[in-house]
Every structure is written in structure tokens, then in C-alpha cells.
Amino acid sequence: MASTSATSSGSATASLVSSLGGGSGIDMTGLAEQLAAAQYAARLDQITAKSDKLGTQISSASTLKSMISSLASSLGDRVRTGDLAATPQIANSTIAQVSKGAATGRGTTTLEVTSLAKGQTLVTPALASDSTPVGAGTLTLRFGTISGTSFAADTARAAVDITIPTGATLADVASAINAKGAGVTAYVATGTTGAQLVLKGADGAANAFTLEAAESPTEPGLAALAWNPSGDLARLTAPASDAAYKLDGVQRTSASNTIADAAPGLSLKLTGTNPGAPTTISYSDPASAITGAMQDLTSALNEMIAELNKDTDPTSGALSNDPGARTLRRQLTTLASTQVMPANASGAPTTLAELGLKTNRDGTFALDTARLADTLKRDPAGTGAMFTNGLFGIYATFDKLARTVGSSSDPASLGGTVARLTKLQTTLGAQKSDIATKQEDLRVRLVSRFAKLNTNLTDSKSTLSFLQAQVAAWNSKGN
Question: Which of 19, 163, 181, 466 has its CA 20 to 30 A from that of 259?
């Protein structure tokens, strides 16, 4: 082998010398580029191979991380649609709109609404025109409750002063009131008797209000807009009142027609009244939707296991010895037995295993439909409660898993794997760039040396030609 290399090298040298001596010319720039590239080719090939392997590993880790994240996101979307928990339905939809509360409802509930929450409506005396000046000064809104002709001010709420400028009209007054954002809105209404200011307060008896006036001595008139319940009650077209209703026969009141968590699993928005004719609220059965969701979850987990098995194959897996992949496998192995609802009442389902999810010996998952059906039959509300957006539940469990797996600060997670391998890839890129710089430096030096060699060669060939000519001349004379 050494003899062959020596022979090849000698032959190449002889060829080069022959070319130089023959004056045929050499591509010095091309030769310099080839020699410089050959100097660093092996190291660049090693770096490229390592970088390609890192790229494959990063892609595999990112794929697994994405699968977990997508599964958590899909579960969140499914939970938010509300079909996996017992959803309330009302028989008479004109009385109220019903929606799922924080908890999970069950059974039936009766609702009887005797009155809706309303805001106070007050009108001012009519003026001949909406452009008639109303006077200048200050109007003051005070809030509290009204009972008959008496007003009890709410000392916890500050009075609101509204400055009315010179030459103001009803429209100017309405704009000034609305600009305060104090919970009272105003507009000008022109009716058969003339232009009037209409003031409307927020719903609830505690949001009643009075209107006081401090006139400007030089421009009176605001006093006509002032009002309190001991005055003209005809101007009070609607008093402020609370909603009154019975839920399961229990009398209740609310300052708002929107009532969150009025009962476990039930929020209300009252829209009508039905005194003496209570309507019924029942809850949907989520069993079919939950069964479908668990089947989809099992399939998604098995797709993830198949990808994980491929990536961790001892001979061909890109992540065969990766700590993030090993951690994920351990987490998936204990998934079925994880407490997803630790605060559930005794006897209520708390694990995915109780919803039929089981782990096979080979690490894949299967759905025990018989156990799921038994759990749904035994405790449908408790089962539905596991599909919530709260701190606990199936969605929260997978969301936590996705965040744990994706954490770039944890070296034992897939996120940590991606961060570590990306850093190594960046380092290799820097090494490759450094080698490229050194290769270019070598090429420049070789070009310079070859250029000098070429100059010397040209000079030598000129000398040789002169000598050859002299020898030829001498030989001619000798003849």
C-alpha cells in the first residue's frame, strides 16, 4: 500500500514538473483551492455528519413534544365545548338562559321568576326644544336605595359631580353625564310634550339615584332637572329593583339578572317571569361523549407510543439513549394511575384507570369499555367533573404533562433535549465556520506561493531558452 502511494505521489510530482518544465501552464488558483479543501475535508465531513445526526435527534424530540402539546390542546378544546360534562337544559327558554357552572349538576331543578332586576329610569320636565338652554352650574348624582318617598344614601359610594357650562342644552347635559362613566347613562328624547332628558341607572335596588342641582347665580335653570323621591314621583318611570326568583322552592334575590353558580353546575341569565308556573331545569347525559373522548384519547396515546418506540429503538432510534425520551416513557407508564381529581369526594372517580384507560405490558394503551361504562353508571356527575378547565382534571393533567415535557430548563425533558442538542448544533456550526476561515486563509497563502513559483518558473524558462540558444550557436560555429 505504501509503495502504491509513493508511486502515485512520484507520478503526480513528475507530471507537475513535466508541466512546469514543458511550459504548458498550471491553474494555480484551482490547484490552491483543491489543496486547501483537501487539507480540511475530513474534519468538515465529521462535523457535517454530527450536525446531520443532531438535526435528526432534534426533529424526533420536537415531534414527540408537539404530539403531547397537540393532545393537551385538543383536550382543552373538547372540554371547552361543554359536551363532556352534564350541561343544564331549561324547559321554558323564555324564562332564563342556562349554562354550566364551575361544578357539575345532576338531577332536576325548578325555577320560578317573579321579577327581573331593573335599573332606575328618570325623566326631566319637558322643554320646548332640545336646543333650549337649561342653565349652568353643577349636577350631583347620589346613589343608594329608594323606599316610597325616602332615599337612603350609600355612604360607601362617592357622589358624582357633573359640571354644566354656560349655554348648555339637554344634549350637553347628557354628554356630560355619560362622560363620567358613573353607572348612569343619559339621552335626549323628544316626545309629544317636548324634549326631555332620560337617565337610566344600573340594575339592582342598590343602584337607585337622586339628582341634585347647584345653579349658577347668573344663569339659573338647573334646579328644574333636580329630583328626589319626595318630589314628583311621576318623573320616576321605573324604580331600581332586584330580581326575585325561587330555585328549588327557595326564595332568592339578585341585583343582576345574570347569576353565576346559582346552584352546583348551573348559571342563570334571567330573561322573563313565570309566577305560579315554575319551569324545570335538567342536565344532559354526557356518557356517549365521554366514551368517544376516551376512545380518541387512547388512540392518540398509542400513536405517541409508536413514535416513542421508533425513536428509542436501541439500534436505529435517534433518541435511543436520550434522558428526555426515557422520562416521557416513565410518565406515560404511570399515566393511568395518576390522581387527576385528588379533591373529589370519597367514592368519586379520580384516575384515568377508573375511566377505563389501562396500560398493556408492551407499554401501549387500551380502553376497558366495561369499566368505563360501570363508572359512568355509578357516578355520571363525578365522571363529567373530570372533564373541566379547572386546576384539576384530565385536561389539567395533560396540560401539565405538556408543559413538563416541553420545559427547556429541565435537562431530563424533551424540551431540555432540544435545547441541549440545538446548543451543540450551534457549536458545530461555529466550528465549521472557523474551519472555513482557516481553509480560506490556506488557499490565499497557497495562491500567493504558487504565484511566486510561477514567476520564478517563468524567469527560469527564459534563462533556459537563452542558454539553449547559446549552446546551439556554439555548436553551429564548431561545425
Answer: 181
**113-122, 430-439, 463-472: least confident range:** 463-472
For the chain, what is the domain count? 3
The Cα 110–Cα 277 span in angstroms is: 10
Predicted TM-score (pTM) of the model is 0.61
Q: Helices 287-311 and 323-333, interaxial angle, to 10°?
A: 150
Same domain, 62 and 153: no
Within-domain flag for 151? yes
Other C-beta atoms lying within 10 Å of the C-beta of residue 297: 22
Q: For residues 61 and 102, state if they share a domain.
A: no
Task: Tell me: pLDDT of 81 over 80.
Answer: no
Alpha-carbon torsion 123, 126, 131, 135, what sign?
Answer: negative
Does residue 337 sit within a domain? yes
**What b/e readout covers 137-146, taking b as 16+ CB neighbours within 10 angstroms?**
bebebbbbbb
Per-residue burial over 439-457, b if 16 or more Cβ lie within 10 Å, else e, is beebbeebbeebeeeeeeb
On whether residue 134 sits in a domain, the answer given is: yes
The whole-number pLDDT of residue 14 equals 40
Q: Is 417 helix (H, G, I), strand (E, B) or coil?
A: helix
Domain boundary among 220, 251, 283: 283
- Higher pLDDT residue, 36 or 284? 284
**Helix intervals (H) in 263-368:** 287-311, 323-333
| pLDDT value of residue 216 | 94
Angle at the Cα of 470 from the Cα atoms of 469 and 475, rounded to 5 degrees: 100
Res. 11 pLDDT band, cuts 50 70 90: very low
pLDDT at 466: 67
Angle made by CA atoms 114, 274, 277, in degrees to the nearest 5:
115
pLDDT for residue 479: 53
Residue 106 inside a domain? The answer is: yes
Q: Please give the residue range of the domain that contains residue 179.
A: 119-238
Same domain for 135 and 72? no
Same domain, 250 and 309: no
**Closest residue by Cα to residue 318 from 60, 73, 119:** 60
319 pLDDT exceeds 50?
yes
Residues 249, 100: one domain?
yes
Residues 6+ apart with CB under 8 A from 264: 101, 103, 104, 105, 106
If asked whether residues 308 and 407 sit together in one domain, one would say yes
CATH label of the domain that carries residue 182: 3.30.70
What value does the CA radius of gyration of the chain take, rounded to a whole number of Å?
Answer: 44
Grid cell, residue 149, equals 318617598
